[in-house]
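Sequence of Long-chain-fatty-acid--CoA ligase (Gordonia insulae).
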Amino acid sequence: MTNLSLNLVATARDHGDTVALRCGEAELTFAEFDSAAARIATLLEREGIGPGDRVGIMLGNTPAFALAFYGILRRGAIAVPMNPLLKAREIEFYLTNTGASALFATPLFADEARAAVDVAGGRLWLVDDAGLAEMIADLPAQPSPVERGAADTAVILHTSGTTGRPKGAELTHGGLAHNCEVASRTLMKIEFGDVVMGCLPLFHVFGLTCGMNTSVLVGATLTLIPRFDPRTAVQVIERDQVTVFLGVPTMYAAMLSVAREFGPSATASLRTCASGGASLPVQVLNDFEKTFNCMILEGYGLSETSPVASFNHPDRERKAGSIGTPIEGVRMRVVDGDGNEVATGEPGEIQIAGPNIMTGYWNLPEATAAAIDDDGWFSSGDIGTVDADGYYFIVDRKKDLIIRGGYNVYPREIEEVLYEHPAVAEVAVVGIAHETLGEEVGAAVALKPGAATDPSELVDFVKERVAAYKYPRHIWFLPELPKGATGKILRREITVPAVESVR
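Predicted 3D structure, token representation.
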């Protein structure tokens, strides 16, 4: 039996008195965590929810999410995590797309949840931490997890939907278990006694697998921050003596922006930092490591890969700007448009194969067949290269590629240059429709507090460092760039102002 919830059962047995979850002043031991999950499983059983049924979770980064998630898995049902900020029509889609029987939702957005369930049907539980505890207080514990196989679906995670409606990636008990086991043992070396920062959303695969599931596996304490704020993050690192920080690039950039407010002792407990979710600018990596005296290990993965596919392993050479080498049990390659492997150093689409790959997109056989070939290779949609040492580098998203006058321009390359300018805090390079060239290169920029520059200066800065066809002709400033729930910059939501070209 492979039910992922068995990890919680084992850790509660061996380390029951250890703090599993911390959120502010609230603490929950592994024994209490396991007991609550077992009673939630009973709640589901009494509602007629059984193995293979889908149950939504629309909760924030509090213990309630973790309890609901492991209760659902213990019952043998399938968890469908959702962003609590979704609107009613989006929630309705997630519920109807998966045929979910029930939804755990935060009371903070009760109206949206009710409106969605009224249309989609099913049971709705509006719960915060205290409300969930009260609801299950008198229920008996389900004796043991329902038997599940390694290939059985544990979670349906919906992709971001950049090309249309979100697709539900089916992640298995075996794939998730493999990913968190490798993450703990060989990648971040998380072990019993560690304190892991839980500021990544638990409804996102990075926070779910590398943060929560890995902590449960090894008996580490997960200290949760309901909403990321750089000052709060540093304060919690100092208060709880956090040893492992998991973040996305914008989190590292934000912490750098407040670093001067804290002494070096505030983050002295940090041993390992890992970055994923988007490419980490080399300048941000170097500045963070110098400021916080802690190495960042960059990795790569997607919702469809559970998520980790490659990583800069701590016991091997690390290459700045690289996403490292494939993790244990996973294969990667770079191919051209016909699926043939390209020469070393040449750009192509990254493909991935291994036990971490989803079984498919829920009820979308054609989309599944387009994403995973007959030999099990998953097409990532990311353009990358691999060097002679087997290290992979992301060039850009296949769909973000800008073609200017027949020449390929990869936004990340231009973003890396702009990040080197001392006034730039955040940047996103986008393609702008052009009558004769097809696309022109543009850049939305957010400046560091107190910094000053102008578009012409930034254009000249880039122009000196890249080929003439690559530098941005349009640069405009924003107070901050639009971001998704994980802090990832959303290029597709950037509005291009009507401005004259800068040349």
